[in-house]
TrEMBL record:
Keywords: Hydrolase, Iron, Metal-binding
Span of domain Calcineurin-like phosphoesterase: 1-196
GO MF annotations in UniProt: cyclic-nucleotide phosphodiesterase activity; metal ion binding
Record-stated family: Belongs to the cyclic nucleotide phosphodiesterase class-III family.
UniProt KW Nucleotidyltransferase keyword: no
Protein name: Phosphodiesterase
Taxonomy, superkingdom: Bacteria
Amino acid sequence: MLIAQLTDTHIRPEGARAYGRVDTARHMEAAVAHLLALDPRPDVVVVTGDLTDFDLPEEYARFRALAAPLPMPVLPIPGNHDSSAGLLAAFPEVAARTDGTRANYVEDGFALRLVMLDTSVASAPHGELGAAGLAFLDAALAQAPDRPTLICGHHPPFLTGIAHMDAQNLRDGAALEAIIRRHPQVVGLVCGHVHRAITTTFAGIAATIAPAPAHVVSLDLSPDGPATFHMEPPALALHLWTGGRLVSHVSQIGAYPGPFPFFDDAGRAIVAVA
Ligand SMILES: [Fe+2]
């Protein structure tokens, strides 16, 4: 099973750019073309928040139009730039899988079970599952203790060293950790929010932040680093469930030189390379 993780697309209305600079729709177009060109194609695309920049209906509509060529299920959850209400209104088919107020739901149709978590807090940049979100997760995991499960959310529950982003991370990470530790079938936790590929462990499992298809938060590990972004090579994450492990790749979007064959000094093709 191959899971693509597209995150932090920050779509703006037609004619507008994110922060007056980034043509996020063009970047998402490239990301969608990239996904369509993959062989094998991902079975599912999880979209871990900040679909929009300002939670506007026209931004969700534009996101949907840009995602429309994708033939596989696209599973969104809100980030801090979105809202639960805005996302559920824009995706009625997702709303139908939830309690109608928070975008917490389970995708059970694949080898790896996906638990999609809504970490957004209305009108606030930080994340929080809250009592209801934590209870949802605990109950969802209790329902299928023998099914390997991946948890997807927007806000990371761990520090990254990028101080202005860490100030916005998941506030109830300790409670999340306690739940994951009670359910050993959880194989990984994937997040968005920081727009950079970041890897650590959390609750004894792999925890990753996926890179973004457009602007990235500047890599500044000084405690008083300013909130800025850079335009680095756009990317998305590919999570391969194979051999009982979750293997996470960064897939760069765009045209790069290659593929080139490997040759030895005598000009003979090397068939098996490491
Ligand atoms: Fe974002």
